[in-house]
Amino acid sequence: MAFFLACLLAVLPVVSMKSPIFGPKEVVGVQGESVSIQCFYPPTSVNRHSRKYFCVQTLRGFCDTIVSSNGFVSERFSGRANLINFPGNGSFLIQISQLKKEDTGLYKCGVGISSRGLSFDITLEVGQGSDLSNDTEVIITEVGETVSINCPFQEQNAQNRKFLCKQDGESCALVIDSNEKVGPDYTGRVRLEITATSSNFFVVTISQINREDVGLYICGVGEDDASEIEKTVDLKLLEAEPELVYAEQGGSVTLNCALGSTVASVPKFLCQIRANKTCDLVINSLGFTNNATHGRILFTPATEPGSFSITIMQVRRKDAGLYYCGAQENGQPSEEGPIRALQLFVSEETTVPKSPLVVKGAPGGSVSVTCHYDPKKNNTLKYWCKWKDSNHCAKLVDNLGTVNESYEGRVALLDQPENGIFIVILNQLTPQDAGYYWCLSSGEHNRKSTVKIDIIDGQSRLIAPETATAQLGQSLTIPCHFDCKFSSYEKYWCKWSNQGCETLPTQEEGNSQAFVDCDQNSRIVSVTLNSVTRADEGWYWCGVKQGQNYGPTIAVSVSVEEEGFSNDVQPTNVVLNEDAVQPEVRGKNIEVPTDSGSTEEHNGGSNVLVSTLVPVALVLAVGAVALGVIKSRRWRYSDRISVGSYRTDLSMSELEHNPRQFGANDNLDISIQESTLGGENECITPTENPEEIQEPKQVKRSSKEEADMAYTAFLLQSNNMANEIALDGPSNA
């Protein structure tokens, strides 16, 4: 048992290194002042309700609790330590006031019932403050800002020279004086103004502060040899601690950067600090995007001048680190100008649902994308957009009925708030549809996602006509052939609108003006529109699904015209194959020479004609019997499909082996992703005689080939009989 406990204690530090708790690594404070420390945790239900604590580590390896969310405060920090929990954003804040020198040390912020819970190490250093005299004014500013220094002078020195210089070792380099002399380092960015004599002070304004401007400045009156020091000013740059940003792996995060109105029109940038201290450019407002974040990052200007935000989707572990955001004319990283630091922590303990990173579809086919959101949040708007570049994502469809004009009839958003998802279906794919697409929703901060759509070659899964024309008051039936793969899946037809695609009822669900009928044997799912009206015009989708997993879809554009409007005969039913596989019997015109002046020759010619037509009629009868046999054989090996009010024969082998003949060339469809909607081939072709399976396979001719061969044989036989009649004479006939 002792050995087991020793092993367990040895493992605990390793586990804590992978803790999802995150906070600042170093905190610096000044004696007598206060500090605020913010720590983050995964916003799971357990973590939100668990105890939060802040403890100080001792030499014995323990961590003594200073303050916790249960209301406990240690005696040493009584009255000057406080902890506030913010479960809404998964963070808590520790505030310590009246800092003492002995408060310097190593601390932990964590979540758990004891100090051995999930935690993060923090170093607190307390300094003594400034060593300058009380007469020295301290001005703290930032890079790129403007400062004003007020310098007093005595009334008796009103006519003397005034100046401001920067101390540099034993000398003091001139900044500016009242004789309009300016130091070379301050040309174009400094000015001196003397107020009314009653005030007795002058003001020096320095703009575009940079890091070289940091130091001690002296206000003086007089010439170089006899100068009087009136005031000293210590100019410092604000070295603010990086803003902490917490993200979960696979989720999304937004980095906010406010640089001030002075750089409102200057190009902005975001760069990431690497191990060699360089800052690699990630994105800028000029359109650059690093390859590592291509398709999953977006630059958005804020309403406040000089402010912007960066959204990163599908956050990865490599995204964690220190970032600088700033402004430069060339959009490149630089320490000149205003800079903000952001520390991004990526937790591997994530609550974000997994979703495919890549979805594949074929030209003319379709893809479906599942987007997640937290149904408990105020997600009033859900929408889908196509990522164009680092500064733009064009909205295609949303749940409020907005559809991009160029995508009408092609895209639909199906919201399922009970499941916390919305599904987007995009069909009639073209090569131009390849790219990155974003799932977004208002009120959501972590479950925004992106998916890449690839257009690839595929195999037809659904076959339907591209267009169909109906006549007012008549009925229209549109068939859709599905692959064996989807025999056990739910088939549906729906009518598209900018609100989605409303599923049409099946014939078993009751009488309706529009209903769906599925014939599993022929693998045809058809939709019938009765008493067609103008309202029936539009897009109709045929598709398959299994539960909430949507498979391929195919779209048909239906137009409605008045009866007799077109000169062409428009069928009231659409068929997959319009070529009638029927042999055409063609007769031959036999020319017989005639002479109106000879009755005998005329009667003889008539006898010859009669004697010739009689055997031909017999041959026609034989041919009809042969054709009947061939047709019965063809009927045996074909499936009967009911389309509307009539029946037609369509060989399923022709559908399967000749998809181009039925319009499949423009309606290929395949949807491949990490978890595909698929399965094994579920169709089993029945045979009337099991013994046929053991017989050697022979090449079977199609029905049309058999008919053409029979017709050719018939013509040859007729020709031979005619020749025999001509040779033997009428009497023999």
Explained architecture:
The protein is mainly beta and 733 residues long. Among the domains are: 15-127, Immunoglobulins (Immunoglobulin-like); 136-237, Immunoglobulin-like, CATH 2.60.40; 243-347, Immunoglobulins (Immunoglobulin-like), CATH 2.60.40.10; 582-594 and 604-646 and 701-733, no CATH class. 12% of the residues lie in helices and 38% in strands. The chain has 5 helices and 43 strands. The strands form 11 sheets. It has a 5-stranded mixed beta sheet, with helices on one face. It has a 5-stranded mixed beta sheet with strand order 9-16-15-11-12, with no helix packed on it. Helix 3 (599-636) packs antiparallel against helix 5. The protein is elongated. The protein starts with a helix and ends in a 5-residue tail after the last helix.
Principal-axis shape: elongated
* Unreliable spans: 1-17, 566-571, 578-612, 632-676, 685-705, 725-733
Number of strands: 43
Structural class: mainly beta
Per CATH, which architecture of the domain at 15-127?
Sandwich
Fold-level CATH name of the domain at 15-127: Immunoglobulin-like
Q: Helical element count?
A: 5
Strand order, main sheet: write it out: 1-8-7-3-4
Q: What is the CATH domain class of the domain at 15-127? A: Mainly Beta
* Radius of gyration based on Cα positions: 43 Å
Q: CATH homologous superfamily of the domain at 15-127, by name?
A: Immunoglobulins
What is the secondary structure topology, with strand pairs?
Elements: H1 2-17, E1 26-30, E2 35-40, H2 45-49, E3 52-57, E4 63-68, E5 81-86, E6 91-96, E7 105-111, E8 118-127, E9 136-141, E10 147-152, E11 162-168, E12 171-177, E13 190-194, E14 201-206, E15 215-221, E16 228-237, E17 243-248, E18 253-258, E19 268-273, E20 279-284, E21 297-301, E22 307-312, E23 321-327, E24 339-347, E25 358-361, E26 366-372, E27 382-389, E28 392-398, E29 411-416, E30 421-427, E31 435-441, E32 449-455, E33 462-463, E34 467-471, E35 476-482, E36 490-497, E37 500-503, E38 514-519, E39 524-529, E40 538-546, E41 549-561, H3 599-636, E42 639-643, E43 646-650, H4 652-657, H5 703-728
Parallel strand pairs: 1-8, 9-16, 17-24, 25-32, 34-41
Antiparallel strand pairs: 2-6, 3-4, 3-7, 5-6, 7-8, 10-14, 11-12, 11-15, 13-14, 15-16, 18-22, 19-20, 19-23, 21-22, 23-24, 26-30, 27-28, 27-31, 29-30, 31-32, 33-35, 35-39, 36-37, 36-40, 38-39, 40-41, 42-43
Helix pairs in contact: 3-5
